[in-house]
Amino acid sequence: MKILVTGAAGFIGSALSLRLLERGDEVIGVDNLNDYYDPELKKARLARTLEYENFTDVRASIEDAEAMERVFREHEPQRVVNLAAQAGVRYSLENPRAYIDTNIVGFLNILEGCRHHGVEHLVYASSSSVYGANTRLPFSVHDNVDHPVSLYAASKKSNELMAHTYSHLFNLPTTGLRFFTVYGPWGRPDMALFLFTRKILAGEPIDVFNYGHHKRDFTYIDDIVEGVIRTLDHVAQPNPEWDGSAPDPATSKAPWRIYNIGNHQQVELLRYIEVLEDCLGRKAEKNLLPLQPGDVPETFADVSDLIRDVDYRPNTPVEEGIRRFVEWYREYYRV
What we know:
Helix content: 40-55%
Number of strands: 13
Strand order of the largest sheet: 3-2-1-4-5-6-11
Number of helices: 11
Structural class: alpha/beta
Radius of gyration: 19 Å
Order of helices and strands: EHEHEHEHHEHEEHEEEHEEHEHH
């Protein structure tokens, strides 16, 4: 297939593009290589996909309507995976407009491109952050998510609503994936694992929020990519049993679906740090701090719908995933 992947130089986008290229798909990769974090890391990820003849590198921002219309018109992708976004809960407190520009305006441009160019299926990144003030665990896609606690979360919930509108009005199959704390080699430098590794190796103290009692459904990158591909190949279908008098938040009479994609296991942050210390062979000096604004204390994914529909089976324990990350980090940064 010919597949458009936005955010193709990003952590998930790069890993996904490689897998699609390896199986013989043609990938049109869109990325603007912005400086939210080190552009050199993005270029290094991109260099891996540029080795494939069936990869087309497009330098553009999804919030640029003219550029995105040109991409859809010139390349006519059959399917689209939208991973381009302004990420990060904490940064959304500092620069809220970036989230509206990329995550709302940019996503509208993706929807319009899909609508006008006959795209068979749009898969897009949502986030576990949409669960916000919810406390019932594990988080289920069939629960209400109307109480976000950061603008980042609100923008991702908005994506789900916008996608439903296009699925309903234009019969565009869309699937939203709520990612749960993705980690692994080639990861994002603003994420905890990357920050902790750099500081521990430099002998610097690490900031540990919520006094280390955060619990996260840490999900290894390979498990995420496998789930994205299975979902992309499984075109969203209407739910014939959907009832407007008792509406299911995860399905619709339109071809629209929402799934959690996580490891379906909780790990406390202190345990996560302990595993990292073992892999690095060094102890961390911890600066224990309270919960930050916009953060949620626990995440835990109910992935039963994804298991049922695409046979999704995450199987990488954090001990293995962190070991692989540390090996990559030492090699990449020569430390």
